[in-house]
Design goal:
Layout lengths: L1 E4 L18 H6 L9 E8 L3 E8 L2 E11 L5 H6 L4 H23 L10 E8 L3 E8 L3 E2 H7 L4 H21 L1 E2 L8 E4 L4 E4 L6 E2 L16 H6 L4 H15 L17 H12 L8 H4 L6 H4 L11 H14 L11 H9 L2
Antiparallel strand pairs: 1-5, 2-3, 3-4, 4-6, 5-6, 7-9, 8-11, 9-10
Helix pairs in contact: 5-7, 5-12, 7-11
Amino acid sequence: MRFWKNMENKAYNREQDTDLTGSPETRVQGMEPFWGEWYLDHRLGSGVYGDVWQIHRGEETAALKVISISEEKIPDERLRLEGFDQNGYHTYMESVIRQAEREYDTLCLFDNDPHIVQCEEGLRAGSTDEWIMLIRMEKLETLQDHFRKVPLTVPEVIRIGIHMCKALESCEKKGILHRDLAPGNIFYDVRTDAYKLGDFGMAQSMAEAHEMPEKAGTYTAPEVYRDNAFSALSDEYSLGLILYRMINDFRLPFQPLYPVSFTHKERSLALFRRLSGEAPPPPRILIRSPTEDPAEIAGIGAQVSPATIDSGRRLAEAVMKAIEPDPRKRYVSASAFRAALECL
């Protein structure tokens, strides 16, 4: 078992016997206490390769990311249909763990950054057909959970943008491209009242950012889709598109304005038009008449009041610059985008 702990960029190793039999949940429970002092509370969420748990040490809580991959239950016939034999599948699955290790190593570069999710410790166990990796992280709220409790307002959208720009500035200083900005990767820290960027699983150094994602994501920049051209400006574009949705009733460019319904085909066409480089239409907050009831301008997106109509429109103008199809027309850097948001 390998053990990492972020402490002045030094890695520490230790060997420990671990029972990898039983279900993934049983195996994880059998590893308690984690790092000698942490215990499971309850599962927070699940993904393709594992779960996220809440853990505690006395009164202190944290999040435990568990990545568990096993080959033993994969039938040979299914492997063949995926184009693998056992050796090939072993190599592929090990690469998944390697990616998780890279994510942990990348996050450790941002120790104590106020706008990037903090990783505290990592641990890996493995055998010829089984991998388990544990990462202890600070416990944060998702955007979805946070805005179930408080209203999404124009000032708060601006604040999200400013905090994410600061996170991207930190990335630029480290020569890192995130490459996967999305609402699901933005978190809220109740303790510091700050938004933080997480999930660096797709992150690469600026010098090596050439691997195309498996599919074009909702927030992929046109130049990435068209030319596989990653840059800090493509991360800026993704952030701009996140903010665009918030002030456009959570609709993407070229989708009908709320409350008009749309089909899966129309959604796919809207994505194609955007990725093909067509200039996005302005968000709803810009095209509605200033004389309309402010409550009607935002629909189901960010709430608008008489006091925030003007700042909402100026926010929309700033966002439109960030999502220019031509990267040369965007803000020259995350710090320039932040400066524009801070002036609203």
